[in-house]
Design brief:
The chain is of the alpha+beta class. Helix content is 14%, strand content 34%. The protein has a seven-stranded antiparallel beta sheet, with helices on one face. A two-stranded antiparallel sheet has the order 7-8.
Length: 153
């Protein structure tokens, strides 16, 4: 029972989705991913056979920048997850505004190409783990100084 649920950006719950149900959504644009009806992002839970949450992957999109992935690891007995943010490895500090339930701001280096996002999704569906070829930044390593205090474009 690895992936037990996917909640798409409009808030629709899909129980026990297959990777083939989710991958086509990577072809959708920012308007879909930043849908105002739901969270404004996709959320995928990976659970063990008993239904215990082991990891979670959230993703959203910004046209022209790609996909941002946020991974939480609940293994090792973590009640509070260890957060990881995707990074494309660049030093691009342009600030990208996303209209989710509330606007959020992320640096451009936090977005992956569609191909890299697809690879990360496949790895997550297979194992509940982060893709090792993707660069991930722990919360403490993330360059929050770039977006802190950002309230307007």
């Amino acid at each position: 029972m690895p992936v037990s649920r996917f909640i798409d950006p409009d808030g629709t719950l899909h129980r026990f989705p297959a990777i083939t149900d989710v991958l086509p959504l990577l072809g959708r644009n920012q308007q879909y991913w930043n849908e105002g009806l739901g969270n404004g992002f996709g959320l995928i839970d990976y659970c063990d056979a008993k239904g215990q949450l082991l990891s979670r992957l959230q993703l959203t999109c910004a046209d022209g920048f790609g996909f941002h992935l946020y991974y939480e690891d609940f293994t090792e007995g973590n009640k509070i997850a260890t957060p990881y943010f995707s990074s494309n490895g660049s030093s691009d500090t342009r600030v990208v505004r996303l209209e989710l339930q509330n606007p959020i701001y992320l640096p451009a280096f936090a977005f992956l190409s569609p191909d890299d996002a697809e690879r990360s999704l496949i790895t997550f569906f297979d194992s509940g783990k982060r893709d090792e070829r993707t660069k991930w930044l722990r919360g403490a390593e993330f360059r929050w100084d770039i977006v802190l205090g950002k309230t307007t474009d």
